Fold each of these.
Amino acid sequence: MSTRIARISGGTAIALLCGASLVGGSEPAAAQQIPIGPVCPALYALGVQGTGQSSPWASPTVDTGVIGALLGPVVSAVPGLVQRSYVAYEAGFGGAVPGGGADPYAASVASALTGLEDAATQVIAACPTTMLAVVGYSQGAQAVAEFAQSVGAGNGPVPADRVAGIALYSNPIRASGEPVIPGRPGQIAPDPAPGSAGASVSAVQLTSSASAGGGIADDGTTYGALTGRVADICVEGDLACSAPDNAAVLRAGAELAAQADLRDPIAAVGSIQSLLSGALGDAWTSFVLNDFHLDSGNVDYTPTRTLAQRLTDATDPRIPGPLPEDTGAATSRWNEITATIAQNPLVLLPKLVSQLSGAWGQFAAGNSDLVNPAVWIRFADTVARHNGYATTGQLTSGIAWLIALAHDLAGS
């Protein structure tokens, strides 16, 4: 059976580049209750920090990290209308990032998602008329994006009409070529919060432009009922959210790193080697079972997924791996394929070589950006771009948006 972690999202090597500031506090996340003032606010903002910027003991109300640079000014501007809390979690990348925990990235994202779901449930249970805003950066943006996906699809812990807005910064699962407001090309002002007239929000302009490429763990994210109320901000050249499209091996490597123990070189080599071996086995099983057609002494390679897609599927912990019986079935099927070829090699071998050569050409095309110097020039300063959202003005429109939401919800 596959050893992948269920319901966990893929990772991004760029997380190793994130800031390492620890958020102080003394109470583990599992024991924390979401702080709500004596009066429920019009808008409650939940923040999920990036790699190395949180911990299981992080304070829920201390404004640090990239998300603190956004929510702090919002609460200062409209303290009577907005309250906020930060989700405390490992914020780890296999122990490789200072300030982050020892959890692999994928497990850390899953922990953040669970904490976010619990926090959102607490808020709407305690405050029946309060609306939610959720903000995430980098690893935290991935957890928030997954939360928005499930809420938008009607499968989340809260109804979509209780979510006023979702702001994502450097989202590793940003869809390729996604506009700033996903699903709304050309739109620069978010939709109003449910139940509000939206006069203040209509004056907000999300100033960031859409970036090329997609998240390093792009999964074609869509937001269903939340479409129009989600903003996905990505700076061009930030490898976490604007990775080149034709770089399947890079994406597969990021997925493996997301699940690995990276605390020291020896642990990292052993962990990645084990994960790679399992992934290649899963890819081979899927390739043999799904991409060959046998019929009356004939064999054809008729792929339902390209070789690059088979590789990235096999390394992606969000996609269930083959079952034990599938491995045995693949061995039997491969024996049947080779036996069929042996009966008529002069006809079948040249045909299969031609078909598989075309598949290899597609694989090369799916990785063409990796050998294109013009592509990699975009990422020459990717560390600074990834870490600069709080210092280059990228948060300004998000701050204005949340303040506008609060005014609209309060009727002011």
Amino acid sequence: MTAAEMKRAEQALIDSGISVEELMRRAGQGAAQMIWRVAADMQTVVLCGPGNNGGDGYVIAQWLLEKGVDVRVAAPLEPETEAARHARSLWQGKTVSLHDAQPAAQFVDCLFGTGLTRAVGEEWFADFTRLFAGAKRRVAIDLPSGVESDHGTLLNDVPAFDTTIALGACKPSLYLEPARSKMGDLVGIDIGISADSNLEILPKPRISGPTSLDHKYSRGLVAVVAGAMPGAAQLTAMAAQKAGAGYVKILAPSGFSSPHPSIVVETVQDMADLQQKLSDKRISAIIVGPGLGRDGRAKELLTIALAAAAPLVIDADALTVAGPQFTDLVKGRSAETIATPHGGEFASLTGRAPEHKIDDSRQLAQQSGCSILLKGSDTVIAGPDGKALISAQDCPWLSTAGTGDILAGIIASRLATGLSAYKAACEGQWLHSRAGQLAGAAFTPEMLVDQIPASLQECL
């Protein structure tokens, strides 16, 4: 949940008769139990700010004290909220000023949490950093201090924690870079929050395999529109086949070779010929972009692909060719459409690099009427209806040439089964990330393709 959504959800609990003090007790004691399970006997300093996050810290400290932990509180100011003052009144241990506090083996950060919009002051952050550096284990409560909660923005030069304990609900910055790399292990504490959100974490898909009644066309015919560079289109076709498409064909200029005997290459004589081939009603999904080129011919190929009736994946060069006209080009399509830009391609479409990935992806999806998969280590998928999703899977080895072409092929294969563009993107993203994890270290694109069936098998 965003900071605003979290505030509304907490207020709903309060309106139902649950006090702020009770919510603080649930949050603090839940976090304390998690800390104690991992490091029961570790000397601990809890840094408590003046707000409710600091109040959580006093609850944590008191619970640990009652368990026999050597714990003390460091506080720059007295509590400023009624609930935090109540928590402070129940604290029976020692409190020292932030400036006078000495490091302990375990550092628990309750200085600021959800809702922070400006940098922590230099003096406070200097002492924060000193205590952090002197610890062997560092735990952030809700969010590390210096992290803005909604967009992954670092307001200070935040160090990397060992563990972050989210209270009530996960916040977007737990999964968005550059904040994501500062979180360490993520743990959630339930405090009774129950509310819908238009933002989700990418789930493992549940995929149905073919039945005895299926054939190659019912499983999906994927057509790859090839251009100037054959290698990218070949990778895309191989990925679509490995992800379960029943039939994959490449529509290409003369001299184009197939990457596998089972993948058909149909030579395109001219633009009229391509238009006719793409009018085949058996085609379940089209991919345009990988290896397309960026010249006048590439623009013609994109125009014809956009005019086709089948669902469409727009990737790579096609996005650069579309440029600022992207929204006008795609918003009239009646078939399911998804675009898969990385940050640079997103800038080509909108005129600026994505600053707030969730908000920017949602805006482009709503303006264009198609789903957007904004690639990166913190991939965001957004639909025209405002739904959005963050991929929490992590595989840094995917940062290599060719893997984006493979992602496009996997998505097209899922799109060809009749899924919505948004759901096909979600399933394709999960399969792609999992295949990267299975491929191990320093894999080639071909090695990644070979792991797609194993990734798919886990979802059946």
Amino acid sequence: MNKLRPEQLAGHCRKPLAQVYIIAGDEPLLQQEACDTIRRAATEQGFSERERYYGDSTIDWQQLLAGAANFSLFAERKLIEVHFYKAKLNEEANQALCHYASEIPDDTILLITTPKLDGNSQKAKWFKALDPHAVLLTVWPVTVDALPAWIDQRLRQAGLKASSEAIEILAAKVEGNLLAASQEIEKLKLLVGQEELIDTTSMANLVGDSARYDLFSLVDRALAGDAASAVKTLVGLQSEGTDSVIILWSLAREIRTLAELHELLQSGRPIEQALNQLRVWEKRKPIMRQALSRISARHSQHLLRKAYGIDRAIKGMRRADPWSELKDLVLHLAGAVCLPPGLDLLALDEEA
């Protein structure tokens, strides 16, 4: 399988695209940006139709395969996206992707996103079947040591300049949350002139307002069980015009981490080893431990199901208010359950 690094993707996409792309990793911002690059290139190369599928147990694989095989002289070239929430696929998904690999249509690009793929995941039937046709791009979390350089690069791309000390302040503020860092840089673009050097005082004043609503504090307050503050933060994000998709990604990422931690603990892994395996930042370990003690494995799976339902609502696949459901998800994550789980699951299953 051809492997690309994220910085190689733009150059790669100036050439004819591959038949299959697999974007793997647990950093939602970088994964989303990689997908956007491929989407733009696909559009420029005449792949004007786009289909999206989410999850594996809920995908109608027969519909996907039939749509991929349905080509005529008048049909549009197509980009099919399949976004998985787990790296380990069920048997139906495995078989469907193996079938797709055996009869890949010339007029279609398949774009798959998945959480990080370990050695066992790369031995799965679907991965081996797609191997000869696919490009694999893995996005890795930015380490503590590399974060200042990453922020500096993003600032320069935005036409901004900052002192190394100011960059350290921003890095400390976001603590590895790239979505939050990107949001801060977008705000700086509006507030700072391109010729102005951002010093420590300016950076502290611009990003240090404790009353400002941000994604990072939303997630932490919910994980800490502070339901009132978490909901207040969510309402603030909504009033600032933050995209509901970004908020859902931030919440779902932490919920997936909790679910994976429970799986590792149930397999006998020591908690410290489990936290390190999932690359939980040292400063975030206490709050994750606190959330683990409060949120059971079953509850974490229930929260993932709720997140999937919200994703469908955002995409217009369910008649529901995404912001109302995001508030409900935050309350559940913070421990303030408003409905018995059984009723809540029924609500998510309803098709409107």
Amino acid sequence: MAEPAPAVLTVAQMVAAEQALFDAGTSVDALMLRAGQGAGEMIWRIGGATPTLILCGPGNNGGDGYVIAEFLRLKGVPVSVAALSEPRTDAARHARANYRGEVVAWADAVSRPQFVDCLFGSGLTRPLEADLWERFAALVSSARRSFAVDLPSGADADRAVWLNAPLQFEHVLALGAWKYAHLLEPVASDCGTVSLIDIGVETHDHGVARLRKPVIAPPDATSHKYRRGLVAVLAGTMPGAAQLAARAAQASGAGYVKLIGSGDAPAGLAADLVWERADDAAAIRKRLADARIGAVLVGPGLGRTPAAADLLEVALAARHPLVIDADALHLLEQFKPMIATRSSPVLLTPHHGEAMALASSAGGTTESDNKVAQAQALAAAWGAHVVYKGADSVIAAPDGQAVIADRGCAWLSVAGTGDVLAGCIAARLAHHGRPFAALAEAVWLHDRAARIAGPAFSALELAGKLPAALEACIER
């Protein structure tokens, strides 16, 4: 059984988590010592005796820097601290007093091979002044190795945006919990390697977490093709996309996959895929009356014609769990009342443009929020489970639960990979019927398959790597 993933916290939630420690008897000084020594240990492991410059700000992030400096000094590291100003909190003043090494004024800071940013951390909400930022950026860029403690100064922790120009760090040491900017673009890509430093705060009850590798049970002795999950994929004007999704569903553990579409089976249809002809809405409705169907997928290659809208309407009227992808998302606005009356779950898979269109049709705008808030708003507005896709994919449930899948494989930026993800989602949903878990499993499997495939793969090649990704999750 997988352990619960550490939560992703807002700045306010992190302050409250720390306050709970203080209320239980931990002092601010003790917590700062714990955080600074934990960060110092990580810096020491990575950088060894590399000469180091630590930039300390006036607040508690700067106090962490003084603790780190003393830790490294005692390890024999040539370390210098540059102070932006005198400490302004009691704990930071105490940390400064306990540091026995060199402190220079900010204006006198000299670049060293290793740089540690303890200027402002995660509390910053406004841009730094231009001259300060220019000098700060120059010191970071001139170092061979750079660390940011808690969060790079200049980034907004909650909105996950740069307040100044983007600045790349090799390592970011998150104190106590993940913040949104560690995991969401555009800041996440500039954070390099992110490490979580345990400082003893309780972080598991906030509803948002970082995606972890799922644990998936293999079929048992009583399994058969219907218990493994029957997936029905509705084929539209471009049946190739539906076939690709169907192949991905097969490769993701489904026991039986069938395509439902008009006319004869497409030329070259794989022998292990079933084609069920249904030339009109009544025929499709009859095909979908099969109670053994575990999930229906509609959208890949559907088109946006009136006939496509009719097909979507039939899918929504069926009683099966439903995955809505691609073209079907663009047709969904007119059917919003049907979603509200469904008893079976609906799963939506928008990329950015589709997410904005869904938000607009639901009567809201989410551009000013971070991506998690956007996904949560979509899930609540549509009464559906949502995976908001991208380099940072966010999975959200109508009740607000969310997970972030950060740093997705960039080689996934090729045509057809969204169809593969949709088929994978449908397979996992048909297998166990749990929509949030199906999305989380599929997003993880999709990314792992891409990493197994290596560079420059096709969507069909990606689908072929899903069994290897699935094997990595099998509970032995």
